[in-house]
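Re: the multi-chain job from yesterday

Posting the exact lines I submitted so nobody has to dig through the queue logs.
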Amino acid sequence: MLIRTILVRLLTTAVTLFGVAVVVFTLVRVAPGNPIAMMLPPGATDEDIANLTALYGFDKSLPHQFVIWLGGVLQGDFGTSITLRQPVDELVLGRLPATLELSIMALVIALFAGGLMAVLGARHRGGSTEVGLDLTSGAVLSIPDFLWGLLFVLIFGVFWPVLSISGRIDPRMEFDFTTNFYVIEGILRGRFDVVGSTLSHMLMPAMSLALPLAAMIAQLLKQNLKEALVQDYTTLARVRGFSETAVILREALRNAALPTLTLVGVQFTFLIGGTVIVERLFAYEGLGNMAIDAVINRDLPLIQGIVLLFAALFIAINLIVDLSYTLLNPRLRHG
Amino acid sequence: MTKHRHTLDVVDLTIEIPNGMRLLRDVSLNLEPGEVRALVGESGAGKSMIGKAVLGILPSALKITSGEILMEGHNLGSLSPRARRAAVAETAALIPQDPLTALNPVRKIGPQITDPLVRIRGWSASEARKRALDLLDRVHIRAPERVMNSYPHELSGGMRQRVLIAAAFAPSPRLIVADEPTTALDVTVQKQILRLIRELQRETGTSVLFVTHDMGVVAKISQKVTVLFAGKVMEDAPTRDIFTDPGHPYTRALIAATPSHADPNRSFSPVPDSLIADLHRQIAQDDSLYRGARP
Amino acid sequence: MADATALPRARGPRSLNLRLWLPAAWLSLLALAALLAPFIAPHDPLAQDLLMERLPPFFMAGSEPGYWLGTDSLGRDVLSRMIYGARVALFVALIAATITCLFGSTLGLLAGYYGGWWDRVISRLVEIWMAFPPVLFAVLLVAVMGTGLFSVIAAIALIDWTRFARVIRAETMVQARMDYVDSARIGGANRLTTLAGEILPNVLPSIVALLMLEMGIAVIVEAILSFVNLSISTDDPTWGSMIAEGRGAIHFAWWVLLFPLIALFLTVLSFSTLGEGLKQRFDPVLQ
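And the result, structure tokens for all chains:
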């Protein structure tokens, strides 16, 4: 049963990925401007242009180009970046850790802050604390990450300059990374100065990304908690002498977390989508920042590679959330 | 009367909703140690509300506007919320109405029984586990080990109610509020559950406040009966007397409405409308007097 | 129980009114500023004056009278640029959100009511679209179509239709199962009349709320595209281009960033609050 579900999901996933590939390929190829002309020095002959065009396969028909490109992708060959002259997969995978670390830090902040607000609101339900929390989360929710980022740039860049507002790590930091997971590698190698520098650079972009999601979690989780708190099993726990906070944490939270989880999965993909502009804002050397440069420079193979990677990431997250929902829910697990 | 003799004293309890409408009207009753008192009435009579008030789990919109609840002589109303919760947990337990919703669906059965023993009473985990297994055995669950490791949805309704009965008796309470514990079950299972509660009650000597709408159940389980109508006590008497010589016309009508045990084929006779109307008129009069008397 | 249900209502209308009027007031002010921009802007928003560069706002030392909110690095008046920027912001909000709404809601209604192949194709498209990071998608689209107001509007519609399609599809499916739809069909109404006459009015509150939300989002998308230099030309006064300028000059003239940022905050918050408020007011179930 579970295996069948997974197989069906994988199949639709493949269809979706194929669709993404078609859309991005079409978009990129109908873009005006000749990318080849841009990469050659002034004074290049028509022959040079023709040679290079043939090298990148731009002289063939669109469907033909697509087949060649897709064939390459399926074999792990994403082509070569026009501006950076390196294989796309190397470039993209080199930047992915930065974006992943940032997104995961944002998710952790959102889960923690949102969870705390939800529990507080449920604990003081019906009172002015709940009304205040509702108003706060409602306002925070409607402001997108871009604006939070700008606000933090202003606050922590100008008025109270305690945190860095650009880059990923202090450039004076001397450390030879073997991977691009700065935080993880820093921890593993015991270089906590590196970890600290990286985290302090990540904090503001991560907060910008986390705030709207935190507000959403606060609202939905609180709603689910309140529904659980009128169930008989919570009443029984109260009779047995558990305090309201204990009832929320021990009895209600796990039930309320399940429906919240599905939302968090979808919202996490939105959060990762938000890294594109937030990374730009904080000059953070991640995938999104590279993507915008690629678009501005008309670096077609690189754009394709990045978009495809994002799409695969989003689909993978949704898949994982669906599966973990099944695994965490005892009623479905044995069903 | 020394109140300490009683496990529970409810004295002139009145409960209102915010607009001043009274849901319970000066209800008094008591429970002696080892006694089973049935609280009987039709739906909406306020019988479950008494149980909830006793256990301190009234919905927040409902307010106790007068009267007292004494548990083993302690006035619950005079305690802080925290102390009240501790006192109730120390003395009382609840067997809920619907076994399908009274067990947490995402937690295993075992911890749901042992948690209060360990975390509230301070028992060791192994003591609590032994106690839980013992009680599951006493409620005639065949494979207690396996049930402890199961999730609620893996058990039938009857099994779940057995689990809840075991959980209620596990901390050796002196008072159990049983809130229509058989209503949600199949007829065949109802009888087993009823027998089980009576059996455990006799073995342990726990007092039971048994909330029900079924006079047949009243006859089987209780020594004393309080008959409620519209939040008002109609009659309070030993069970034997109620059936042989009901003192109130409403009690008589309730008994008549129950299928007779001697003749199960006899049809239901509902409480006559004229009687209901009479009673409501009386209560409305009481209410207007009550309202007039208030500042 | 009449009294009990009256309780939450007692303070409902007043707080709801406030939540409608405050955002409406800000948006009206903005609309007024946009319409009357040539008459109320104290300066030409494009006029550069290198003698007047980076003047601070009125409450700081060194400010010049007449330049209330200061000037940017080219000596352009921040207040005037903000007033003209409101034109772009509101224009994009209204036009882009309306197009997006019409396009997305139509697809949502069709998928939700007709089901079958309609639903399969539309749902699959939505799924593919959701696999794109929206900002990157927008940047890419504008790069493909060329910069300019038209591209910005088209990009918003081409990306955000999925928001309407998803929500309206789900709500339509719920409505389509209701008894009143059956009775309308038995009464002889054909499918299209049923869709327009019975289902649409019931999903309209959600459409209105989403439309309002989308207006806020459109303003943000325009600002983001200006920020990466892909909206209309860099010289034109838009809040986004001011923000981009302000981000670059943040250590010399933070007010160039602060004031348009405040305007964006208030505008986005107003649109979403207004949307929620209108939804509650017109929702037949909540009435």
